[in-house]
Amino acid sequence: MKTTRSLRAALLALTGLLLLTCIPVLQHTEATAGQTAAEPAHWYGLRNRLDSLTTAWNQANFNGCVLVAEGGRLVYVAGLGYEDRHSQAQPIDTASRFELASVSKPITAVAVLQLMEQGRVDLDRPYADYVAEFPDRRITVRMLLNHTSGLPDYLNDEWRFTQAFKSYRRLDNDSLLYLLIKHRVQPTFTPGKRFSYSNTGYALLANLVERVSACRFEDYLREQVFRVAGMHNSFAARRLPAAHEARCVRPYRSISFADSSYYHYRTGVLGDKGIWTTAADLWRFDRALRAGLLLQPRTLELASVESCTIDDREVPYGLGWRLREIDPLRTVVYHQGFWYGFNPSYTRYPYADRTIIVLHNNSADFRLSRLLQQIEMAVENSQTAI
Q1: Angle between helical axes of 173-182 and 199-213 (0-180°, round to 10)
Q2: How far is Cα 319 from Cα 121, in angstroms, rounded to an integer?
Q3: Predicted pLDDT at 384
Q4: In the sheet that 322-327 helps form, which strands lie side by side, from edge to edge?
Q5: Each residue of 82-113: pLDDT tens digit?
Q6: Helices 368-384 and 42-59, interaxial angle, to 10°?
Q7: Using an 8 Å Cβ cutoff, are 65 and 76 in contact?
Q8: Residue 134 in contact with residue 128, Cβ under 8 Å?
Q9: Summary count for the chain: helices (H), strands (E)
Q10: Hey, is 204 helix, strand or coil?
Q11: What is the pLDDT of residues 41-70, one digit of tens each?
Q12: At CA 89, angle to CA 86 and CA 90, rounded to 5?
């Protein structure tokens, strides 16, 4: 297993170095593909195919934004529907702000890995070394990043937290940490033994960033991630932004309008969710990663390789990223999210310098995997037709 992972890491490292030599200057990523004279001929047919797909999705209640980029250039962008389907005042475009749900996790992971690069965090030390009141010294920072901590999920395993939550109307990161300690919430298996997706771990990582950096998680992201990447329309929020806040898309759980009353007590927890951004800003994040502006290339490569349990079994998750291997030379690095009213996806294809971003705001219409499959097939088919 270790030999296989080492080979994949070496191949990713070589691919990354080759890609870094041809990444355009970040300032030029604002241009659309249509402004570049030497545009690949197959993009025209690809755009027509994607137009047909997005038109069909829109008729099936898809309400969001689709962005496809390759080689540092935009291939296709489409906004479908309205930021507020009740008023229909503002059509969706690449400046529309969406809640990222679990697509927030790669951004939280970047914050932790930045602190690691600075020598302020050791991934293999106990989390309790940074958050002293946390009682379980078996759980390391790495285990929180790759979901092998065994901590139950406060969102999806809520029944385990019934006693802890019953007296709280609203949670934030500090109160979640306090309740975990007070009610002695235990891992569901020996930490490090297997993979089990847990939003709790990423909430605790936001606490770690705050303790180590000595600033609020929101402020750290603004200064060390969003500003560095040029993501000027992005922010972390512990509440649903008010309807009048600029370009924030209204969430829907069905075809009916969902106001802030449904946005219940767990919304105040950040790290696992809570980041708002635009399709354009998420692409800026992608380009900043590829250009080495947020993380050193080797760190990004390590985050994009399968993690392993303490007994050396591979898990399909890196440090903040889900992974899907096509073959030893090609791994798709991605994350999706599902949080009341929002269902985003951010997919990177490092071997092709390709990015696919889909943001939409109707979590009752849970067909995101099918939509992504159709986009991916359209892109791959356009390549083979060259």
Answers
A1: 110
A2: 14
A3: 66
A4: 73-80, 64-70, 354-360, 345-349, 330-336, 322-327
A5: 998 888 889 999 999 999 999 999 999 999 99
A6: 160
A7: no
A8: yes
A9: 12, 11
A10: helix
A11: 889 899 999 999 988 888 877 889 999 999
A12: 110
Q: Could you give phi then psi for residue 68, rounded to 5 degrees? A: -125, 130
Q: How far is CA 239 from the centre of its chain?
A: 19
Interatomic CA distance for residues 161 and 291, integer angstroms: 42
Dist. CA 112–CA 145, nearest whole Å: 9
Query: What domains does the chain contain, in order, with CATH numbers?
Result: 2-102+217-384 (3.40.710.10)
The rounded distance, in Å, linking the Cα atoms of 202 and 154 is 11
Question: DSSP label at 222?
Answer: I
Q: What is the dihedral of CA 95, 99, 101, 105, to 10 degrees?
A: 60
Give the side-chain half-sphere CA count within 13 A for 200: 28
Tell me, what DSSP letter sits at residue 238? S
Nearest partner of 240 among 361, 346, 89, judged by Cα = 361
- Which of 59, 155, 100, 90 lies closest to 361, judged by CA? 100
Residue with tokens 């980029």: 69
Block residue for tokens 């969406």: 98
Please state the rounded mean pLDDT for residues 199-228: 98
Please answer whether residues 114 and 162 qualify as being in contact, where contact means their C-beta atoms are separated by less than 8 angstroms.
no
Q: Does the structure show a pLDDT above 50 at 32?
A: no
Name residue 336's beta-bridge partners. 345
How big, in percent rounded to 5, are the helix, strand and coil portions of the chain?
Answer: 40, 15, 40
| Token digits of residue 344 | 């985003």
State how far the Cα of 269 lies from the Cα of 55, in Å rounded to an integer: 36
244: CB partners within 8 A, 6+ apart: none
DSSP-assigned beta bridge partners for residue 317: 322
With CA atoms as reference, report the closest residue to 367 among 375, 86, 250, 99: 375
Give the Cβ contact number of residue 70 at 10 Å. Answer: 20
- CA separation for the pair 40, 345 (Å, rounded): 26
Give the helix ranges, DSSP H, for 272-367: 279-290, 297-303
Predicted confidence (pLDDT) at residue 238 exceeds the cutoff of 90: no
